[in-house]
Amino acid sequence: MKNIKEHIQEAISSSLAGLDVKIGLENPRNPEHGDLSTNIAFLLAKRLKSSPRKIAEEICRAFKVDSDYLERVETAGAGFINFTFSRAYLLRLAAEILTAGENYGRCDIGKGKRVNLEFVSANPTGPLNIVSARAAALGDSLKRILNACGYRAESEFYVNDAGMQIEKLGESVIARYAELNSIEGIEFPEDGYKGEYIYRIAKKYTPTQTVNWNKLTEQDRNHAGLFAVRDNIKFQDYILRRFSVIFDRWYFESLVRVYKKHIEVSYALMNKGLTFEKDGATYFKSTIWGDDEDRVLWTSDGRPTYFLPDIAYHQDKYDRDFEWLIDIWGPDHHGYIPRMKAALQALEHPPETFTVIIAQQVNLIRGGEKVTMSKRAGEMVTMDDLLEEVGVDAARFFFLQRKASAHLDFDLDLAVKETEENPVFYVQYAHARICSIERFAEGEGVSGEPDWDLLKEKEAFDLMRKLAQYPMVVESCGRNLETPRITMYLGELAYSFHRFYQKHRVVTGDKELSAARLGLCRAVKIVLFNGLDLLGVSAPERM
RNA sequence: GCGCCUGUAGCUCAACGGAAGAGCAACGGCCUUCUAAGCCGUAGGUUGAAGGUUCGAGUCCUUCCAGGCGUACCA
C-alpha cells in the first residue's frame, strides 16, 4: 500500500504529462479545505500562461479518484486543489497504527546520517540555570525527533574544565574553606563565584598536603578548582537525568588540551596562512568569512582562548565521522556564531554541515514580576529549583511549546497554581483516560480483532483524520528542528479524542462495536504515547 | 553606534510565502453512564507603523517605532 502523499503526487504528475514540478502537499488549517491541499496550480500559472483557477480545474478533471485513498478532489479559492481522504483509507490507517505501534510516525528523511547534537555545555562552575533547562529540553527532544526521522543523532555535553575560570573557581573554594576553618589572610576574590553552593563544596574539600596558606600556587587553585568541577558536574548530571536528559557523551575540554588537539588546529590554520600576530597575540582571520573582527586564538601571555580548544572540539566531532553538527547555545553566545562558522569553513567543512540554534532567554515571573537573576551576586533560580517547583513534565512541555528563537516568559506562580489546567495534563489525561477504558473493557470481556467497518460516527473519523496527520508533523519538526508543532498537535489530538469520548460510549452491550471503538482508542493511545515520547514527557496510565 | 531575537485576541503563544488559530482568563450550559484534569456554547483582531516584491505577506525586502540580549587577549 502506497503512502497517500505519493499516491496523490503520482496521480497529479501523470496528468501533468511530463512537466517537472515538485508537488507540495500540506495540511490545510481549515477542515473545510479537506485533508491535504496543493498550491501546484499557482506555481504553474506563469509557465502555462493560464490562470491558477483554470489549471486547478484541469488537473481536477484529469484526476482519477481512487476510493482506496480519496473520497473527493476539488478546487477551491483562487486555485487550490483540496483532497479529502476516503473512509476506506482512514479505516485502513487506524489498523496500520495498531500494527506499527511505536514505529508509527517514523520516517527516513535522515537516511542514517550521523548527527552530533551539542547542548547545555554549561560551565562546570555552578548549578544549571533556566536557559540550560530550556536548552536541555530542546536538545534532548530534537535528538528524539531526528532519530524518529531516520537520522542517527547523539547528544553531547562539552565541559569547560580548563582555563582561567577553573583557577578562579578554585580560588573561591579555597577562600570559603579558609573562612569555614578560620584560616587568616585569604581574601575572597573580587570576581569569584559567590553562590551558596561554594560553601557546600568547601565543606567537602580537603586541600593539598603541601598547601602554604601564605603563598597559594596555581596548583593549589587548580586542585580546588577541579574538585569543585567534579562536584558540579555530578550535580548537573543528576539534575539532567531527573529531567529525562541523558547525554550520550560528556566531552572534556581538558582532554582537548591533553591531546593537544587545539595545537593541531592552530597549526592547521597557521599553515593555511589564516593567522597573524599582533601585540604578542595570535589571531585567526575570521573576517574573511564575514565575522566583524579577527579573533584571538592565543593571548599575548601564551594561553589559548576559549575559542581555540572549542574549534578543536568541533574538528574532533568531524573526525569522529559526524556528518552534521548541531549546537544549541544560549542567547549570550550569538555573537560567537560567525567566528565558529568561519573557523569550520577555514578547516574546509561545508557551512551546511554546521547549524547553530540559539535558545533564547527565559524570564521567570513570580508574583507578576520578573525574577532578577545575577550570577555574580549568586542570586539564581536554578534548574533544580524549577524542577522542584513545576515538575519535569510541565517544565519540558512548557519549554517545547515555544520555538527556540522566541523569548519566553515562564510564570512560576501560574505553572504551579494552574497545574490542573496545564496543557500537558490535558494531553496526559487523554492517555490516562484511554488506559482506563482499556481496563474497563477488559473487565467487560471486550476483545478480538476490531471490525473497523462498524465505525461510522463523525467524531471517529475526525479522530482518524487527526491520526493521519501525525507523521507529517514529525517530519516537519525534523526538517525545521522545531518542537512546538508537536505540542500543538498533541493538544489537538487529545481534543479530538475527548470529543469522541464525550459523545460516544466506547464499551457498551454491543461487543462488536465496542471492540471497534476500543481499537480506535488504542490507535490514539499509541500516537499520544509516541508524541509525548518525542518530547520526553511521560504518558501516565492513571491520573 | 553595530549585530541578533521579539512585537498576532485581555494574558501566554501557534500558523513549510497559501485560505488568520489554540490554550488560559471572561460569560452561559452539561456528571444515576468507560476518569468533569472532560465536553458544548458566547465573546474577543487594522498581525507595532509605513512602503515594496508576489496571483497571494503575520511570514520575504526597505525604513521607522517599542522591548530584550550581545558587542573581551571572559567563558
Oligomeric state of this protein: single chain
C-alpha end-to-end distance: 38 Å
Report the C-alpha radius of gyration, rounded: 29 Å
Given the structure, what is the number of helices?
19
Number of strands: 14
Kindly describe this structure:
50% of the residues lie in helices and 12% in strands. With 543 residues, it is of the alpha/beta class. Among the domains are: 4-85, Gyrase A, domain 2; 261-359, no CATH class; 362-419, no CATH class; 422-535, Isoleucyl-tRNA Synthetase, Domain 1, CATH 1.10.730. The strands form four sheets. Strands 6-5-4-10-11 form a five-stranded parallel beta sheet, sandwiched between helices. A hairpin with a 2-residue loop joins strand 7 and strand 8. The model has no long low-confidence stretch (mean pLDDT 90).
Which key terms come to mind for this protein?
RNA-binding, Gyrase A, domain 2, 19 helices, globular, about 550 residues, alpha/beta, three-stranded antiparallel β-sheet
